[in-house]
Amino acid sequence: MACNKRKKSVNCQNGLTLVELIVGFSIIGIISVLIASPYFSFFRLFLNQFTAIDVASENRLALNEITNQSRQSESVSVLTIPCGGDPSGSNKLCLQLWPLDQNGKPFRSSDKDYIIYKRDPQNNTKIIKITRAATSSSRKSSTKTVGTDITNLQFAYNPNNQNILITVTVTTSRVYDNKTQTTTQSADAFLRNK
Predict the structure, then answer these.
(1) How many CB atoms within 10 Å of residue 79?
(2) How far is CA 90 from each of CA 97, 107, 143, 156, rounded to the nearest angstrom?
(3) Which of 30, 58, 65, 118 lies at a 20 to 30 A Cα distance from 41?
(4) In whole angstroms, what is the distance from residue 120 CA to residue 123 CA?
(5) Residue 13 domain flag
(6) Considering only CA atoms, which of 165, 171, 111, 167 is closest in space to residue 137?
(7) 73: which residues sit within 8 A by CB, 6+ positions away?
C-alpha cells in the first residue's frame, strides 16, 4: 500500500507495489517447483516400471502361445513344402497337427494341419503364427501376430527322440526414456498328441 503524505490529507491508494508482486510470484514459483519435482520423478519411475511389466507380459504371452500349441501337436515337421519353403530350425518351428472336425475335435487323417512360428520377414520385431489348414479340417488358414518387440526367437528340439521336447526361448526388448527394458524367458513343451 502506497500513501502520499506530502499533502495535508493522507492519500492512501490500495494495491501492491512491483517489488511485492515479484516477491510473491517468486515464493509461489519456488513452492510449485518443490511440489512438482517429486511428482514428475515418480511419474517417470512409474512409466519405466510399466514398460518393464509390459515387456515381460508380451514375452510371456508369446511364449505361452507357442508352448501350448506345441503340446497339442503331433510332431515337428521337417518337410519343406507344408512349412512354407524351409523346414523347422533354430528360428522357425513348423508343427504338424491333426485336422479338426466340424465340432472342433481332432481326428486322424493322412491330411494334416500345420502351424508355423517364425519372425515376420517384413517386420523382424514380430513373431507370426501361420496356420495352414488341411482341406478336410474346420481349422481356418490364417496369419496372425503372436508377439511384438522381439529381439530373439530360438527353438531347440531333437526330432529323432521318441518323446520330443521343444525348448522355446523368446527375448523381448523395448526402449523408453533412453532405458532398454529386456526380458528373456524359456519354456519346455513335450509333444502330447503323438
Answers:
(1) 12
(2) 20, 29, 20, 6
(3) 58
(4) 5
(5) no
(6) 111
(7) 95, 96, 97, 115, 191, 193
Residue 68 domain-assigned (yes or no): yes
- C-alpha angle 69-76-163 in degrees, rounded to nearest 5: 90
3-state secondary structure of 63: helix
* Domain count of the fold of the chain: 1
- Indicate whether 160 belongs to any domain: yes
Q: Would the pLDDT of 1 be above 80?
A: no
The three three-digit cell numbers of residue 15, written as one number: 494495491
Domain extent for 114: 47-190
Residue 175 within any structural domain of the chain: yes
* Cα gap 107→102, rounded to integer Å: 10
Which residues have C-beta within 8 Å of that of residue 84, sequence separation ≥ 6? Answer: 94, 116, 130, 132
> What whole-number distance in Å separates Cα of residue 18 and Cα of residue 26?
12
Q: pLDDT tens-digit profile of 81-105?
A: 777 776 788 889 999 888 999 998 8
Q: Where are the beta strands (DSSP E) in 61-147?
A: 75-76, 92-97, 113-119, 127-132, 142-147
Going through 102-178 in order, the beta strands assigned E by DSSP cover: 113-119, 127-132, 142-147, 150-156, 165-176
pLDDT tens-digit readout, 101-128: 999 888 888 888 999 999 999 999 999 9
